[in-house]
Automatic annotation (TrEMBL):
PANTHER family: PROTEIN CBG26694, RIBONUCLEASE H
InterPro entries: DNA/RNA_pol_sf, Integrase_cat-core, Integrase_H2C2, Retrovirus_Pol_polyprotein, RNaseH-like_sf, RNaseH_sf, RT_RNaseH
A molecular-function term among this protein's GO annotations: hydrolase activity
PROSITE patterns (UniProt xref): INTEGRASE
Annotated organism of origin: Paramuricea clavata (Red gorgonian)
Keyword Cytoplasm appears in the UniProt entry: no
Keywords: Endonuclease, Hydrolase, Nuclease, Nucleotidyltransferase, RNA-directed DNA polymerase, Transferase
Region (Disordered) location: 513-569
Protein name, UniProt field: Uncharacterized protein K02A2.6-like
GO BP field: DNA integration
Biased composition (Polar residues): 554-569
Amino acid sequence: MILTFPYNWLVMLHLHGTEHPIVFASRSLSKAGRNYAQIDKEALATVWGVKKFHNYLFGRNFTLLTDHEPLTSIFHPSKSLPVVTAARLQRYALFLAGFDYTIRYKNTKLHGNADGLSRLPLHSETTEEEPDPVGLFYATQFEPLPVTAEQVKRETQRDPLLVKVHGLVMKGWSTPQDEAIKPFYQRKDELTVHCAVLMLGHRAVIPAKLRNQVLTELHEGHLGIVKMKSLARSYIWWPKIDKDIEHLAKSCPGCQLQQNEAGKVPLHPWEWPTTPWQRIHLDFAGPFLGRMFLIIVDAHSKWPEVEIMPSTTSTQTTDRLRTIFAQYGVPAQVVTDNRPQFTSAEFQLFLKTNGIKHITTAPFHPATNGQAERFVQSFKHAMKCEKQSASQLKTNMAKFLLAYRNTPHSTTGESPSMLFLGRPLRTRLDLVKPDLQRKVMNRQIDQAGRKRHSPTRQLSIGQTVMARNYSGKDKWLPGIVRAQTGPLSYQIKVGPNRIWRRHIDLLRASSVKVNDQSDDTAEPHPELGETGQNIAPAEEIVAEPDIELATNPPVVQQQEAGRATTGSE
């Protein structure tokens, strides 16, 4: 059991219900200590006793009795420290946290066994007080700096403002009228004096004369504002120190020359064109895969074009653009970066001649041409994912462009092909729709029926017909239907060993008798002329214009033959 009093200590032992003293001690307060508030005196006595009898207490559970009831809350081992607690009491509580104890309040009237030594104080003006190790530690941290603790002490005594603050800390605070003292008054609960140096918590208050020198030391190594503030909060303080640190960092020539880029401003999107190919964005990708690529992106539909460039001169660039413009038309605006190919006189003349407005991005800011830059990234990623060879590059490019053009874009919500061409591009994925082909065929049949306004004619095998003749002076020749080769095409025997293939539009039903005396076992063949030479077997006959046209029939006959062979079979 430990009993404390502002001037003395007593260590008691309970034995068979009786208190027996083990050791006791007392001390006189220093001149500064006598100016402490009563709660600080009580706390000082508690901490001094624990330090004095450390060998008896450390590692043991003991009970701490005090006649100053506020200390039971401030030093309670299981209660958090109040936020407004003065720095001195905070340090005391931190020290006591290393011991295992229970603190209780005991009324002064019942505290007489620890009161005896206080009635016999030592009449001495000086005490051999051991220095506060915490304050001593922070004071020694100034030694490596060009500003030493001794200099701070000396200049503090010469600084009129700090002299006033020193007096208020030692004698007690009153509401200040001086504006310069108000920053200190707002932190009066944290201000203490150690070795004649004002301390704000564990930080020394630097006099005005030494502040520039200390700031220079803080900026040693050209640390940034945040790191300087963090370092200062470990050692020093004065009013408006953060503003002084910011001013020093911003006025350092070396730091300003090597400063990082300013924060990026919010994105300012391009105005979306109302029609396709109104504004296009150009850029070069490469060297990539050993080649250079010209990238063209339509701002309205996001339709891309990629051209492999043998060289990136202005001449080659304008030649490729001229070809692209011949396919899609001349745009109103072209956006590029500041490459020499795009800023050359030849390129400028090409645009001016075609009435195109040229917009260039800000130097070293590729994000302005983000339409093309983003597609370059997607293009490179897709090409890297494929195994590339000289023969496969163009194939892989075509596959990528087809897929990209047919995929809905995240910005527009539509595929580039829909916005650019007004229709989706047919891909192999369309094959998964089983009814598509039948639907198209039915529509074609309906369309053909509506156009002809007549039912489809049919011929039977062995029927006598008149076949259109393109190789002689007679316009029609009689023949017999030998076989049906398609929905609307037939093989017609028009003479011995002579078989023609004709569309039903070039055949007329006839009652003319035909003398069929040829060998029916002969293989049918396409007509080559009047010679009737057998060139190919029947199964190789295809729906193409008759080779008899080589005999130069009249122009009208050629046109009719063309129409005959282009119908749906």
